[in-house]
Amino acid sequence: MRTANNNILLLCGFVSMKGVMYIQLYVQTSCALRLLAYMADRTGVVPIHELSDATGFPKHCIASVAAKLKKKGYISAVVGPFGGYVLDKSPKDISLQEILTAFDDDLRLCDERLPIEAGNTMIHNLKKLFEKEENNFQQVMSSYRLTDLMKGEIDI
């Protein structure tokens, strides 16, 4: 569900069989991807100030995203002067699709409200194309793991 505090931050492009397609990510989704990717490359407790410095997101955003990741079982919090967050799941067990849908359960390439006027074949076909590419996108994101983000380059 989209809320006012989940402002759109990022417009990601990806290449499909039909050309370049775009998908919008919300601030919290982008933060979660960066936070988890950073933590996946670390061992032990990662302090919030380190996560903020590494990801470029303010501490209050990190705390908000971390609370949701904690609730979903991805990380746990360690309190105290040497506190921070610890990754609870192995990075190889976390798909990119999981992260995307954890923060945006209605992630779409195509707005379902796209008007289809009677007899407008072009709009109808465009919507069908987006729906097909959306399925392809979800399959691709499901096949990649957090560990893939840590590589120098992803083979597509």
Core attributes:
two-stranded antiparallel sheet; disordered N terminus; about 160 residues; 4 strands; elongated; alpha+beta; Arc Repressor Mutant, subunit A
What does this structure look like?
With 156 residues, the protein is α+β, with helices and mostly antiparallel strands. It has a single domain (8-149), classed as Arc Repressor Mutant, subunit A (Orthogonal Bundle), CATH 1.10.10. Helices cover 45% and strands 16% of the residues. It contains 6 helices and 4 strands. The protein has helices at residues 27-40, 48-55, 59-71, 96-103, 121-143, 146-149; strands at residues 8-16, 19-26, 75-78, 84-87. The protein has a two-stranded antiparallel ribbon with strand order 1-2. A hairpin with a 2-residue loop joins strand 1 (8-16) and strand 2 (19-26). It is elongated and about 65 Å long. The two termini are 30 Å apart. Residues 1-18 have low confidence and may be disordered.
